[in-house]
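quick one, 142 residues, struct below
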Amino acid sequence: MTIKSIKIRPQFLTFLCIGSAAFGFLWIIMFLTLIVYSSFNKNVPSALFPGIVIEYLHAGYAFVIAEIVLTAIGLTGVFLMWRLKKGGFYLYAVIKALTYFLPVIYIGSHHLTFPGLFITSIFIIMYGVSFSTNLKNDRKSK
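---
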């Protein structure tokens, strides 16, 4: 393996991956805590969990588990991007879109929120720009 064939992860991509992984793991922990807490207490206090998460619980355990699974798959995409695999970006983008629209399909159209769409789009765009910049730099170095 020559020195030119070693890929170096851009610092921006490193920060994105760490942030996405931390947020994803916290999201999964929150959902798992919600499932455990609600199985012992039928009334989940809104002070303990954000209102939207309690609404997710009212949609049923199947929905909450689907959110956990999609988030875990999204974390797989983040891990692949960490390793500079372009397929991780596509996996992440598809999963983030599914995660955004799943509550809309399952619960109702009032979950189509501009902030949610904006944040989802911004992260997909930031990853896309980071990967396209990295590809351009790889081509220039060859």
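Helices lie at 11-40, 51-58, 61-82, 86-106, 114-141.
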